[in-house]
Structure formats: C-alpha cells, structure tokens
From TrEMBL:
UniProt-listed Pfam families: Multi_Drug_Res
Entry annotated with the keyword Membrane: yes
Protein name: QacE family quaternary ammonium compound efflux SMR transporter
Key words of the record: Cell membrane, Membrane, Transmembrane, Transmembrane helix, Transport
Membrane-spanning segments: 5-25, 31-52, 59-80, 86-105
Location in the cell: Cell membrane
Organism per entry: Parasedimentitalea denitrificans
Family named by the database record: Belongs to the drug/metabolite transporter (DMT) superfamily. Small multidrug resistance (SMR) (TC 2.A.7.1) family.
Membrane protein topology class: Multi-pass membrane protein
Length: 111
C-alpha cells in the first residue's frame, strides 16, 4: 500500500476517534474526551497534510469526509444507539459508492 493511502486511512481513523470523543465530551464539559478531540483532530489534519503531497485536495477531502461520515454514523448507531432511517442508509451507501467510483475510475486520485 502506498504511504499516502496509509496517511489517509490514519487521518480518517483519527478524525473518527475525535468526532466520537466530541459526542462523549458533552459539549466540552468532560476533560479527557475533550483532550482526545483536540489531539485527534490535530493528528488527522497533520496526516491530511502529508497525503496532500501525493493527491489533490478535492479528492483527499472527498475521501476523508465521506469515509468519516459513514464511520461516524456506524459508531453513532453501535455505541450511542442513534438510529438511521432508510433514506439515511441509502445516502450512506451512495457516499461509499462515490468513494469507490473515485478510486476505481478517476485519474485525479493521485498526481
């Protein structure tokens, strides 16, 4: 796996951890989840910056935000009991499909 994909995957993971901690921070009233939010987002943006050496910002952001949305929705369901209706599930599937299309067919996915 090329290093830039590893950076991007780790950036998505860090963002997902940060957003999960954001929910757990209770509007930044709990210290440890709040610290995790700040550290995770800082790490995520650093890793995104490394990824931008190899891929254009629009593609990187589409993949990072799209995967983050889908993962956070799954975590919201599994950990926080947040339900999704059928239109939300279809929308999430379309986001994943969009990422797959970019990866399989776009010549813009890497410089």
């Amino acid at each position: 796996m090329p290093a830039h994909y590893l950076y991007l995957i780790l950036a998505v993971a860090a963002e997902t951890i940060g957003t999960t901690a954001l929910q757990a921070s209770k509007e930044f009233t709990r210290l440890m989840p709040s610290v995790i939010v700040v550290v995770s987002y800082a790490l995520s943006f650093y890793l995104l910056a490394l990824t931008l050496r190899f891929m254009p910002v629009g593609i990187v952001y589409a993949i990072w935000s799209g995967l983050g949305i889908v993962l956070i929705a799954a975590i919201g369901y599994a950990i926080f009991g947040q339900k999704m209706d059928l239109p939300a599930i279809i929308g999430m599937a379309l986001i994943v499909l969009g990422i797959v299309v970019i990866q399989l067919f776009s010549k813009s996915a890497s410089h």
